[in-house]
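Narrative progress, year one. The postdoctoral researcher (J.K.) led the effort to move from monomer predictions toward full complexes, under supervision of the PI. The following entry was the first complex the group processed end to end, covering 918 residues in total.
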Amino acid sequence: MTVASPAGTASIRAFKVAAHNVVTPDHVHSAQPSDVAAGVPPEVVVEPGTEQELAQVLKIANDSRIAVIPRGGGTKLTWGNPPSRLDAIISTARLTRIIEHAWADLTVSVEAGCTVQKLQEALALHNQRLALDPLWPDRATIGGVLSTNDTGTLRLRFGGLRDLIIGATLALPDGTLASSGGKVVKNVAGYDLPKLATGAFGTLGVITRAVFRLHPLPQNSLHLTILASDLHETQRIILAIQNSKLAHAALQARVWAEAPPEVNILFEGTEAGIAAQRTDLTKLMGTAKMKECSPDVWKVRQELWPLSSGSAMQTGFPTSAIVKISILPSTVALTVQRISQATNPQHFGWRAVLQATGIGWLRLDGQPDAVHEALQGLRTDLEAAGGSLVALEHSEDLAPFDAWGQPGDALPVMRALKQQFDPRGTLNAGRFVGGI
Amino acid sequence: MDSRVFQELRTIVGPSGLITSSEELRTYESDALTNFRVVPFAVLLPQTTAEVQAIIRVCHREKMPFVARGSGTGLSGGALPVENGVVIALTRMNKILEVDFANARVVVEPGVINLDVSSRVQPQDFFYAPDPSSQSVCSIGGNVAENSGGAHCLKYGFTTTHVIGLEVVLPDGTLVHFGSKTLDMPGYDLAGVFVGSEGTLGIATKVILRIVKRPACVRTLLAAFPSPNEAGAAVSDIIAAGMLPAAMEMMDNLSIQAAEAAVHANYPNCGGLLLVELDGPVAEVEALTIRVDQIFKKNGASEIRVAQSDVERALVWKGRKSAFAAMGRISPNYIVQDGVIPRTALPKVLSEMGILSAKAGLRVANVFHAGDGNLHPLVLYDRRIEGQEAAAEALSYQILELCIAAGGSITGEHGVGEDKKHAMSKMFAEPDLETMQRVRCAFDPLQLANPTKIFPRPRMCGEKPGKYVPHALETAEVAERF
């Protein structure tokens, strides 16, 4: 059951007063309609100016049983389950510093509220990058991207956020500000809390800063599209490339219900190296048609959004859902078959972007009941095959659909961790797996 | 140990799976860090997950601590037995259970030897990337516990990069699964937390590994520089030029001498030897080789060699990988240190290390993963000379302090274990350590799994955070809490 603002007016007022003592008054304000998180309106928004302020405000909230959602750019607040309680948003909007770009050591230390784009622009001054291409980099913040574990196409070559993060500072509900990891790439001292915080949806603590390993910007890039005649050829192409000695940086399949599938591949490196790989790829592809394409193909999953009006994907159906799926790379064709079997073309529109890592994004459009049924069926199939389906965003008229699905037999350990870090359930109440 | 418990354990593993004779127990009294020794009550050699579970259930019931052990090659005392506890050695659980080339996944038991994974997938042109120097004897379970690295982790990442799922027996005997063959399973990244937890969160009984396709071309370049400083400058230039080689290793003159004496790697005799390995498509490697060669020359390399054949490459790597053991050729005793610095701090740290070494009157040889800043200073001493061992230990610790002061870490790949638990307080503040302990308490509230390791002071679980008091809304059943 959703309970907005359970703390009561008196508690909220007391929280605001206490927060004023920590954060300058113009950064504690009443929530606006635009502050609604997953359909639930908060009462108050606090924007701490430092990590210490953030930890103090969080402690005040925790002590007075104010339910908190931490917020970065606010681009993914609808992901996860709706909060079971919400009083206050603690925003990282003022924690935007790039603390140290140790370019010669290929590391950067950055505050959580810095946008991905701002960070990338600073790193580019030294021809470096965080090898990550998340959604909406102009607005998405480091903290938000980490908490939601939003990785894109470069994951194939450079690993996920878990492989790029080397240090983190977390503010815990009891006011502890704890650092772990470090600022060197190789380090096994103590538990790997940066990985624990990555993808934890802000349920254990608020990430206030992160340290990443960096990669050089590529000197040259080549973006190619391979036109596949059908699903089976798409699968064959992906497996052939993955089983080859090509050193591609990204590989994805775009499968739209209404169009033939396309495969995109990215090469990075020296001119000579790229040219030779293009030749090798041509041999490998046989008769399949291949052409150069725009780098924008790597942003194609952004085209699955927005959910409602103004979407490039207007389909005329009332209900839409966008989900992240994870499968074995060898089951791309099988998975797409499952999707098309679950959806009658007369009553559905769908689009999928599948990475060679096995991670993909799918948008379904249809009648509310039919979308719900298709999602449920697809989740059952994928889970049975060892994969998962996580709902990111869906229309309000969709019947309740748990965002996460089967949490597996490790749920008791996850609950025990939650109990250790956030025993009062202050942070992101009810939004994570198993009701955490 | 209570004879009833003893009988019960024997029933679980059978007579051949239980070691209790004092001579045989001596084999297990330490790992490869031999200056810490504790003789355990008993050593158990389970053959199945069910046996591991049954043993741990007994341990849990009896509140008896246990220490998991693989091949015992660890260098931080991570597998050092604890008093009044048992050792659970996973060496008999050594089957490669599944190989899936299409998805580049391998499922193994924890006792499988690291190199055996690569050997198994070699015919299909794959390899398992983490390659600690002990890879021909160390086990995957031990690699998981320590998050082992190796020379090639500069490009390919560490054990944690390659472990995507685990079957784990928790310290209360419960069997759980973290991660899976597919990525990003819903929930916390428990596989990420478990890898590198040094046996303190439970025992892995199955490990899902990612394997990597072998590159089309591998080229190993060897360059001789007057000193480590010029070699370090060359490394900086390689990185500034936007290259990320598969490996960049450096050895100083003492290490070169030792390696020569031990395996005749035919290294040039110089002050700083740099070994750079490039891999990838042929044309790419060729283009990069030219640039690396230019960078070597610009930084004053007196000799540059390219190992082309597999045989040449193998010899070059043999010298590097046997560098620790080779110290025996030039010194009766030595301490292996494992510290990390931001790579750019190398000249400063080396010069300070030189001063400390002169002051202590002890030689220090340096083997260095130059790409990622992981230093392995080897403090050479003679145990027969009174006071030298203590002086060597003090010097080794001072070197760690240099690493911390430079903004680095007390361990890059060997782990904290028993050896460095007191140095943890130098690297981390109390709230940082207290927060890590919360993880331990979530997994192992009774602190039975390798209980005396990693942390300088044990914390009783439940001390902090305070006892949970339910919210009024929860007691009224208006809101739920998990």
